Structures are given as structure tokens and as C-alpha cells.
């Protein structure tokens, strides 16, 4: 008998915090609001740690059914939570990074209105996200899935007075609807074919099926529909368009929801459903292709963006593409590994970007920054850690996870690897571009443009305005409550990858082994056609966990190549943005068409507007609004009302008030009744 | 022995006279009398049936109707007197204040 861990408490705790702040937080002081939010979120984190401490003594997967939820014939869904290696990793990421970002937000949002509202939403998000990762069936997962979408909508539109924020929130919600539609249909298919939505039961039911190598069966259909849902949530082609706009939200929200946790829900869902995906090789291939394309595509957009948060947004999309690529080549643990390291360094990047924005008084355009290195040293150093981590330079976290993905991608097909490598180069380039533009060179903003940039670096810490401040209070380091989470995440960005050092570099790849039981448990005789016939790696044994015995030198070679790509990106960024800053403009003007295409994000938003939004609005206006709504529904309603009025206009004359006409009617009625009775009496005789 | 149908025809004639009187007369006293005529038409049929089937309930009903008619006459005449005092008319076509 395994101990009862009360898993349900973990999601419920932030919900209580959200309820308290949401219902009565308006009357609290800011300190009280922050205390409530941090207290409940921290409690969830503490509980996650407590569970992690006992984890080795549990029989996995550890399922705790709280109560029965739906019972309909033979179909039933429990309100139950499950814990295994995968959900433990997610649990620790969500609560840990979430808690740090809560702390950071206390400082970041201090000046903003709606303080209680912000923390209520943030805690609400934690509740739904934890429901999502702890759910033991697809339906409960879907509840969390929709809930995080709601929280995301609320937080993107947090500054709802701004039109663009409200529009971005709606866009995120509607685009996600398309994906959710796929998810729902997939659930229906599961109910039809497996009669259950419980993870364990579904995966057990899937076991007897062999991979659908020939043609497309219902497993492929389910997998593709799940993928559609994942594409919506995790911002993959073709549904990625909402994420860049989501940067309208406050920066901690971008860090928590749109970088570290929520957008990885799609990856988690695909990894969780690996038993289905592994039996649908064509769907897996679609996952890999979508991931590769998204990674490359978003990275190219990222190099031409000038808004610091937009760069990070496209970078997030690109990194999520890597995770999908990993899942697509059945390297699920590599995908989750990258998910984890990405949560650290991308969360950090956003928080540091928030700190930069905070320092320069709300400016987000990198062209108006520069030279901030000495003025905000803590932000600078933590950002440096994160940038190196995402660029894939050892020994930082991103290197190990990205290298693992690229190596596994190469085993599937060299095309994935090549595109992934180019993307790694681009990633490194645009991240160092951001780094150089923000922290090096001369300050290009207005407020202190004529001012020196060296002298008051040391005395501008902890939120105190610099002595030579102009206008917005001068460029100043963020307060300690914002810097401490940055430092913790910076440390994690450094050491976070060490849990998964691959065998070729002398490590044990513990992370992969830890997740192994989840992903190996139901691995079928795996799709071998993904692996090139001549590839040295044994096709099946390398799927999860086990170290490839052959090709070690090849792997080291590949590691070297990807590090080289990262360093090349660094060099190029240095060349273009520090050494000769006039060069980018020249390149841009010499390739005007290509540059403006990229700068305009390939006109995808315009394409979608032209292809879907405008026709939909036009059709809605003519057919649905004037045609069906006004022509049929309103017309039917108004018609029946008019008809009733006209009829009563005629009939009301009977109510004349004339006594004798009433009496006449009574007499006529009585005569009619008598006549009828006499008539029936005669008939029955 | 007079056949039942004779009573019933007479009862019908009385009732029809009452109805016609009620509908065409304007004087409220006449209308009142027409109502009494209808009631008595019905009473006649009651007692005729009671005699025919040797059932007492018909007779009891007639007494009951007479009691109600007496009460109605008392109340009705009081209303008519009150009406005449205020409107100085017994023509019901002129007593139509509640009309739409």
C-alpha cells in the first residue's frame, strides 16, 4: 500500500489563493495580496518538493482517485490524479519556476494597478496548469488545458484598456479554440475505440496494436488530432500566430505562461500520449516535420525583430519546435529534457528582459537600448547566462538538451539534423544580437542619450534612482525581490543540464534514465523506417534511455559541430552588431525584399487575415448576421409577435363591454354544446 | 298522465323566452325578470324528471335554486335601486362605464 500523498491539494492550494485575492483582494494592501499569492503558490511548491523527496518509495504510476466525476453506462471518468516520473518533472518545473516568477512579479507589478487581480489570475493559472500535469485522464487534462487557456487570455488582456492587449487576448483564445477542437475530437475517438479516457486504460488498450505503417488508421487520426491541439497550445505552425501577440501581457506572464509552462503543455501532451504516437509513424513524422519547420521558420523571423520581447517570443516558438522535433523522432525524454532547460533559461530571459524594460522605463525597442551592461549588472550577468544557455554553448543547460535532440534527430534523418543545426546557428545569432544591442555599445535612448554611461553603475542598485537621473528616474537596477529569482534561474540555467550529460561526454544521462520507465513501458516494435538503413545506431534499442554503443565518436563530432554553430552565431552577432554596426542596415537594404518579408513575419498574419479572417467576417456579415440571424431567427421571432398582435387586434372586439353581446356569446356557446351533445347522443343510439 | 316531453318542451320554451328577453330588452328590470324566467324553466325540467324517475334529488335541487334566486333577487334589486339613484336610468346601454 502506497502512502496517500493528497495530490489533489497541490492544484487546490493556488486555487484558494486565487479565490482569496480575487474575491476580497481589492480591500487588501499590496503586501497582503503578495503574501497570499506567494504563500499558496509556495505551499504548492513545498508540497511538490515533499513529494519528490518521497518519490523513490512510491509504486509508479501513483494514482489517487478523489471521487468519481462522470458515470454514463460503461463509460466513467474519475476526478483523479496520477504521479509518475514525467508528471513529477513537470510538477517541479511548474511549481518551481512558477514560484520564482511569483516572487519576481511582486516587484515587477508593484507600480501597476489591479495588483490583486494580477495575482489572482496568476494563482488561477497555477491551479489549472497543475491540474493539467497531474491529471490521470484526458478529460481532467482537458479541463486544465482549457483553464490555462482562460488564464492566458485573462493575463494577455491584463492591460485591457489598451486595445492591442484586448485584441491579442482574443486572438490567443480563438486560435487556441482551433487546436482545442482537434483535441476534443481526439477524445471522442478515444471514447469510441477504447471506451475510456484514463491514461492507463487507454495505453493498455493501445498495446495490442502494431504500428500503422501501411495507410492511416484511427490511431493516426487520434494522434494527428491531438497534434492539432498541441500545435494550438504550443504555438506551432500553423497555429503559432497568437504567441508573438501574447507579448502584450505583463512580462512575468510572458515568462511564466508564454515561455516556461503553458506553451509546453502541448509537448507534455504529446509525450504523455507517446503510446499512441509510437503506433502512428506517419503522425510522428508530421510532428517532426512541424517541429523542424517551426523551429527554423520562427528563428528566421526572430533575427529581424526589434522588440526585445518579440525576439524572445519567436525564440520560444523556435525552441518549442525543437521539442516537437524531439517528440517526432520518438526521443520523448530529450523533448522533456529540453522543456525543462528551456523553462529555466527562457523564463530567465523573459524576466531579465522585464528587468531591462523596467530599468529603461518601459521601452521595449532594442534600437533604443544599448550600453546597459554597467548600469544593470545583475540583469546583465543573469541574461548572459541565459543567452549562453539558449545558444547551446557548454556547459550551460541548453547545450545538453539541444545536443541530445540534434543527435537523436540525426539518427532519424539528416534533414532534421541539418535544419536543426541551422536553427541553432540562427538561435545563437539572434540571441547574441539581442544581447549586444541591449547591453553593449552606446545608449541610444532619449533620456540619457547625452549622458555618460560609466559613472553611476555602482550606486544604482536596489531600485534607488540614480543620482544623475533624468526624466523617468534614470536607468536603475531592479529591486532585490526581482534580482533574486533572476540569480536562482541563472544558476539553474547553468547546472540544469548536468542531469542529462550524454554518455559520449562521460555522463550517465540520468534524466533520460529517470524518464525511461514512462516512455519505455509501452514501446512497440518501433517504427524503423524513420532510421536511415545505413545508420550506425541500432534502430530499436536506442529509442529511450539506453546509450548507443556505436557511433560514440560520431556523436562527439556532432556535438562539436553544434557547439561550433553556436559560437559562429555569437561571432556573427558580434561582427554585425558590435564590430561594425552599420553592416546590418547595408545587408538589409541589399536584400530588401527578403529582409522586409522577414521583418513582416512573412506576412503570415496578413495571409491569415486575407485567407480566413476577412472571408469569415464577410460571410458572417452577409450570411450569418443579415441572412440567418436577421433573416431567419429575428424574422421568425418578430413575425410571430406581429402575428399575435394582429390576431388579438381582431379578437379584442369580442371584449366590447356590452353586456348583451356577452350574453349572446354565452347563449351561442351553450347552444353549440347542447347541439353537439344531442348530435353525439343521436349517433350512439 | 301528461308525458314527460310536454314538460320538457314547455321548459325549453320558457328558457328560450328568458334568453330572448335577456338579449333584446334594455330595461334592467325586464332583464332581471328574464333571468327568473330561465331559472324557472330549468326548475320545471328538474321537477318533471324528479316525478318521472321518482327521485327526490330533483325536488331538492329546485328548492335550492329557489333559495338562491330569492337571495339573488334581493341583492339584484338592491343594486338596481342603488344604480337608479346614481344614474337615474334603468337602460343598461347607458350603464357602460367599465367598457373599454
Quick recap:
By secondary structure, chain A is mainly alpha-helical.
Description:
The complex is a heterodimer of chains A (685) and B (100). Chain A has helices at residues 9-24, 30-54, 85-108, 115-134, 138-156, 163-194, 199-206, 218-233, 242-245, 251-260, 265-272, 274-278, 281-302, 308-328, 332-359, 377-391, 397-412, 414-439, 480-495, 510-520, 552-579, 583-590, 592-599, 604-651, 659-684, and strands at 62-72, 75-83. With 685 residues, chain A is mainly α. A two-stranded antiparallel sheet of chain A has the order 1-2. In chain A, helix 13 (281-302) packs parallel to helix 18, helix 15 (332-359) runs antiparallel to helix 16 and helix 16 (377-391) packs parallel to helix 19. The model of chain A is unreliable at 448-472 and 524-549 (pLDDT under 50). Helices cover 78% and strands 0% of the residues of chain B. Chain B contains three helices and no strands.
Highlighted features:
heterodimer, A: 685 residues, mainly alpha, two-stranded antiparallel sheet, 25 helices, 2 strands, B: 100 residues, elongated
Topology:
The complex is a heterodimer of chains A (685) and B (100).
Chain A: H1 9-24, H2 30-54, E1 62-72, E2 75-83, H3 85-108, H4 115-134, H5 138-156, H6 163-194, H7 199-206, H8 218-233, H9 242-245, H10 251-260, H11 265-272, H12 274-278, H13 281-302, H14 308-328, H15 332-359, H16 377-391, H17 397-412, H18 414-439, H19 480-495, H20 510-520, H21 552-579, H22 583-590, H23 592-599, H24 604-651, H25 659-684
Antiparallel strand pairs in A: 1-2
Chain B: H1 4-24, H2 28-53, H3 57-87
Helix pairs in contact in B: 1-2, 2-3
Amino acid at each position: 500500500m502506497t502512502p496517500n500523498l493528497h495530490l489533489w491539494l497541490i492544484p487546490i492550494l493556488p486555487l484558494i489563493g486565487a479565490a482569496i485575492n480575487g474575491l476580497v483582494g481589492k480591500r487588501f494592501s499590496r503586501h497582503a495580496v503578495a503574501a497570499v499569492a506567494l504563500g499558496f503558490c509556495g505551499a504548492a511548491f513545498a508540497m511538490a518538493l515533499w513529494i519528490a523527496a518521497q518519490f523513490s518509495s512510491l509504486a509508479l504510476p501513483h494514482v489517487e482517485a478523489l471521487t468519481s466525476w462522470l458515470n454514463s453506462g460503461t463509460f466513467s471518468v474519475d476526478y483523479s490524479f496520477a504521479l509518475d516520473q514525467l508528471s513529477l518533472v513537470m510538477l517541479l518545473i511548474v511549481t518551481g519556476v512558477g514560484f520564482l516568477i511569483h516572487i519576481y512579479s511582486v516587484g515587477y507589478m508593484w507600480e501597476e494597478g489591479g495588483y490583486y487581480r494580477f495575482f489572482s489570475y496568476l494563482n488561477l493559472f497555477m491551479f489549472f496548469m497543475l491540474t493539467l500535469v497531474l491529471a490521470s485522464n484526458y478529460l481532467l487534462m482537458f479541463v486544465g488545458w482549457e483553464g490555462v487557456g482562460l488564464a492566458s487570455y485573462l493575463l494577455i488582456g491584463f492591460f485591457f484598456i489598451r486595445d492591442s492587449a484586448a485584441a491579442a487576448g482574443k486572438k490567443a483564445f480563438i486560435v487556441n479554440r482551433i487546436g482545442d477542437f482537434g483535441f476534443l475530437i481526439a477524445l471522442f475517438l478515444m471514447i469510441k475505440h477504447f471506451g475510456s479516457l484514463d491514461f492507463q486504460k487507454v495505453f493498455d488498450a493501445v498495446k495490442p496494436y502494431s504500428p500503422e505503417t501501411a495507410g492511416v488508421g484511427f490511431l493516426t487520426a487520434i494522434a494527428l488530432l491531438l497534434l492539432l491541439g498541441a500545435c494550438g497550445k504550443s504555438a506551432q505552425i500553423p497555429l503559432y500566430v497568437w504567441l508573438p501577440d501574447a507579448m502584450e501581457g505583463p512580462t512575468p506572464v510572458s515568462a511564466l505562461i508564454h515561455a516556461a509552462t503553458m506553451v509546453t503543455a502541448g509537448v507534455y501532451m504529446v509525450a504523455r500520449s507517446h503510446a499512441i504516437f509510437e503506433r502512428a509513424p506517419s503522425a510522428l513524422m508530421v510532428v517532426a516535420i512541424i517541429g523542424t519547420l517551426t523551429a527554423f521558420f520562427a528563428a528566421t523571423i526572430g533575427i529581424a525583430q526589434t522588440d526585445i520581447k518579440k525576439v524572445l517570443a519567436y525564440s520560444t516558438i523556435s525552441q518549442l519546435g525543437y521539442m516537437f522535433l524531439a517528440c517526432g523522432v520518438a526521443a520523448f525524454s530529450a523533448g522533456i529534457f529540453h522543456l525543462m532547460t528551456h523553462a529555466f533559461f527562457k523564463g530567465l530571459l523573459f524576466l531579465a528582459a522585464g528587468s531591462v524594460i523596467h530599468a529603461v522605463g518601459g521601452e521595449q525597442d532594442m534600437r533604443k537600448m544599448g550600453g546597459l551592461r554597467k548600469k544593470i549588472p545583475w540583469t546583465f550577468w543573469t541574461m548572459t547566462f541565459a543567452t549562453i544557455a539558449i545558444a547551446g554553448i557548454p556547459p550551460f543547460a541548453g547545450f545538453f538538451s539541444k545536443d541530445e535532440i540534434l543527435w537523436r534527430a540525426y539518427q532519424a534523418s539528416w534533414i532534421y539534423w541539418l535544419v536543426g543545426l541551422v536553427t541553432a546557428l540562427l538561435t545563437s545569432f539572434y540571441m547574441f544580437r539581442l544581447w549586444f544591442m541591449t547591453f553593449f555599445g552606446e545608449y541610444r535612448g532619449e533620456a540619457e542619450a547625452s549622458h555618460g554611461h560609466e559613472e553611476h553603475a555602482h550606486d544604482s542598485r536596489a531600485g534607488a534612482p540614480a543620482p544623475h537621473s533624468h526624466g523617468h528616474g534614470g536607468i536603475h537596477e531592479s529591486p532585490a525581490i526581482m534580482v533574486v529569482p533572476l540569480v536562482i534561474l541563472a544558476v539553474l540555467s547553468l547546472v540544469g543540464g548536468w542531469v542529462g550529460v550524454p554518455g559520449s561526454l562521460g555522463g550517465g544521462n540520468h534524466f533520460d534514465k529517470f524518464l525511461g520507465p514512462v516512455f519505455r513501458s509501452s514501446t512497440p516494435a518501433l517504427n524503423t523506417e524513420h532510421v536511415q538503413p545505413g545508420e550506425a545506431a541500432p534502430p530499436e534499442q536506442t529509442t529511450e534511455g539506453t546509450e548507443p554503443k556505436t557511433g560514440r565518436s560520431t556523436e562527439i563530432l556532432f556535438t562539436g559541430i553544434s557547439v561550433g554553430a553556436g559560437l559562429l552565431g555569437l561571432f556573427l552577432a558580434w561582427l554585425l552588431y558590435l564590430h561594425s554596426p552599420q553592416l546590418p542596415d547595408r545587408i538589409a537594404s541589399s536584400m530588401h525584399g527578403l529582409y522586409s518579408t522577414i521583418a513582416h513575419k512573412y506576412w503570415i498574419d496578413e495571409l491569415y487575415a486575407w485567407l480566413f479572417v476577412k472571408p469569415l467576417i464577410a460571410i458572417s456579415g452577409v450570411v450569418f448576421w443579415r441572412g440567418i440571424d436577421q433573416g431567419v431567427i429575428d424574422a421568425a421571432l418578430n413575425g410571430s409577435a406581429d402575428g399575435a398582435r394582429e390576431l388579438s387586434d381582431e379578437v379584442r372586439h369580442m371584449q366590447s363591454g356590452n353586456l348583451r353581446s356577452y350574453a349572446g356569446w354565452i347563449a351561442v356557446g351553450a347552444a353549440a354544446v347542447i347541439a353537439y351533445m344531442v348530435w353525439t347522443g343521436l349517433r350512439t343510439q | 298522465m301528461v308525458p314527460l316531453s310536454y314538460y320538457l318542451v314547455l321548459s325549453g320554451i320558457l328558457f328560450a323566452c328568458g334568453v330572448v328577453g335577456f338579449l333584446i330588452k334594455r330595461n334592467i328590470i325586464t332583464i332581471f325578470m328574464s333571468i327568473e324566467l330561465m331559472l324557472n324553466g330549468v326548475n320545471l325540467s328538474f321537477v318533471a324528471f324528479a316525478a318521472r324517475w321518482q327521485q327526490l334529488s330533483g325536488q331538492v335541487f329546485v328548492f335550492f335554486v329557489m333559495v338562491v334566486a330569492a337571495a339573488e333577487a334581493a341583492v339584484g334589486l338592491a343594486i338596481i335601486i342603488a344604480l337608479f339613484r346614481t344614474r337615474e336610468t334603468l337602460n343598461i346601454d347607458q350603464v357602460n362605464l367599465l367598457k373599454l
